[in-house]
Amino acid sequence: MIDSHAHLDFDDFDHDRTQLFADMKRQGISSAILPGVSSRHWSKQLTIAAQYDCYYALGIHPWFCPDNIETEVAALAQLIELNRKDNKLVAVGECGLDKRHKQRAFSTQVALLERQLQLAISHQLPVILHSVRAHNELLGLLKCYPNPKGGVIHGFYGGPELAKAYIALGYKLGVGGLIMDPKAKKLRETVAQLAPDSFLIETDSPNMTPINAVNSRNSPLNIPSFVAEIAFLQNKSTVSILEQLDENVAQLFEL
Ligand SMILES: [Zn+2]
């Protein structure tokens, strides 16, 4: 198993990261993809990825959208260029749009995302996308900038129709801890109805702590319970879902 989206480089894991990776290995969680969030975080992210042999993506999260995007985008382009031959660099992201986050004008978030979508296309990398209350705008941009490598809408929470719109454009849906919440009806309907090759499994650690989290926090150790829940909703065996999810992540990110 691979956690397709975990911020294991964040300070929250500084006190027990080595122990956590040992526990992950024992549970069959072999690795994780560490998404990039901002220029301030890249250096530590790359250090942790190298130290623990993790995959990573490079990008600027909309929560860290700078006032002037040009300097940050130039730094990102340079870093991707520098690391492009590293087979642990698997995507551009996480990038996207978040209407709940109002610190920057939405138009600046859009401009920042456009630049990252272009970078992904020119470097032939898939994208890891964050989208909160901005699905129409995101779908529009993904149509404007078609990426043959596709990508993932991480932390997906929508219903089957929205899911199908993304899948039609070649994107997968990242399913995380929200699946454990019986109140997440739309997402549970999506997971029950769509073909299992549409999904990736992720935790978004340390954010989005699920119901009944292992050690009361969000970490990749919660992945097995998410897989079991997807298998239950799909009415399939855990083993077959596990195999499919492994295949999905390997195919999208060319692992
Ligand atoms: Zn994230």
Automatic annotation (TrEMBL):
Stored PANTHER family: D-AMINOACYL-TRNA DEACYLASE (PTHR46124), HYDROLASE (PTHR46124:SF3)
Annotated organism of origin: Shewanella denitrificans (strain OS217 / ATCC BAA-1090 / DSM 15013)
Entry-linked CDD domains: TatD_DNAse
Cross-referenced Pfam families: TatD_DNase
Any single Gene Ontology cellular-component annotation: cytosol
Protein name, as recorded: TatD-related deoxyribonuclease
Binding locations of a divalent metal cation 1: H5, H7, E94, D204
Coiled-coil ranges per UniProt: none
Database matches in InterPro entries: DNase_TatD-rel_CS (IPR018228), Metal_Hydrolase (IPR032466), TatD-like (IPR001130)
Key words, A-Z: Hydrolase, Metal-binding
Keyword NAD: no
PROSITE patterns with a match to the protein in the record: TATD_1
